[in-house]
Amino acid sequence: GRLNADNARFLLLAVLIVLYMLCGAAVFSAIELPTEREAKERWEERLENFTRRHNLSRAELRHFLREYEEASVAGIRVDDIRPRWDFTGAFYFVGTVVSTIGFGMTTPATVGGKIFLIFYGLIGCAGTILFFNLFLERLITVIAYVMKSCHERQLRRKGVLPHNGRRGSGSSEVDSLAGWKPSVYYVMLILCVASLIISCCASAMYTPIEGWSYFDSLYFCFVAFSTIGFGDLVSSQNVRYESQGLYRFGNFVFILMGVCCIYSLFNVISIVIKQSINWILKKLACKCCHRCQRRLFRSRRNVVMPGNVRSRRNISIETDGVNESDTDGRRLSGEMISMKDFLASNKVSLAIMQKQLSETANGYPRQMSSNSKQNGFSGGVGALAIMNNRLAETSVDR
């Protein structure tokens, strides 16, 4: 049934993620392991030369280096750099906390700081994720509005839609404009271009100021904007910069805009991944259905007429052998899909719980417009629900 289809999607996605991780681990191991071994050999050679030159034991030197590692974790460096826990450094730290970047170059060392971080991050991360969702809501609204306006201009050029914006009752194309939905691939392309432009502009700022190569700056932008935050490259860590205040403000703006765009892009890509999983499941179900029908035809070839078998096989090809809803039966058309269909099988789904929480908080049940119910965008939770609902609103007649 419907629940089994959802479980199949979940299991297939889990298998694909594990395979993706295994392939990534193999590639990174093949690329990075030889360099790591060469660096270790060079370090062992320098350590041996240093102990021989200064007549030190390897045990004493290693003990000293371990103490330096502990000092490095606390923020102490050989070169003179600004304190990590002054007000500007602390503000930069809380920015990496609430945005979930977490570079790791600054971490609390005291028990009080660690306890405070737990409660501070709990509220701060939740609030920032809400901000990202609201940003995504407005971004998708603007994109969908612009795309629909372009679609209406195309209809006017073809003469289907009058220039005064009123629609004729006899035209099916004009009537279908109310249910028009922008392509998820166009939205993904727009977000990719926006993210690339922000990353290139930010890299042009980081390269001369931080002294990084342009490629390293692009690498830092992706690691920071995607909230991965390795910490191997961190901006705004030197003691002095030219136009220091302006640079820190620009750094804050670029990171904020980049995180918002990449966050939105990830949500759109997740929809494309779900469509791909549905397509894979349809193909697998279609092949299994064909095999079962062949076995049935072989076992009952003396009973069933060939004409009946052909008709049944044609029906299975049209339906792809999946007894699901019309939404799951549709082919990949590139339209923004609805999370309502994905969660419809659950008796107590996340969408119902979200609606109940919203009604409890607002003191009254939320009213759904008839148009939003008809276009299939309602339902869902989180950022995907915001995208679907906003795209539904923009597809309604103005």
From TrEMBL:
Coiled-coil regions listed in the entry: 33-60
Any GO molecular function: potassium ion leak channel activity
Record localization: Cell membrane
Record's keyword annotation contains Cell membrane: yes
Recorded catalytic activity of this chain's protein: K(+)(in) = K(+)(out)
Keywords: Cell membrane, Coiled coil, Ion channel, Ion transport, Membrane, Metal-binding, Potassium, Potassium channel, Potassium transport, Transmembrane, Transmembrane helix, Transport, Voltage-gated channel
Superkingdom field: Eukaryota
A cellular component term, taken from the record's GO annotations: plasma membrane
Domain Potassium channel: 77-139, 189-274
Pfam families hit by this protein: Ion_trans_2 (PF07885)
Protein's membrane topology: Multi-pass membrane protein
Record GO biological process: stabilization of membrane potential
Transmembrane residue ranges: 12-33, 90-111, 117-147, 184-206, 212-234, 246-266
Similarity-based family: Belongs to the two pore domain potassium channel (TC 1.A.1.8) family.
Listed name of the protein: KCNKD protein
Organism: Calcarius ornatus
Record gene name: Kcnk13
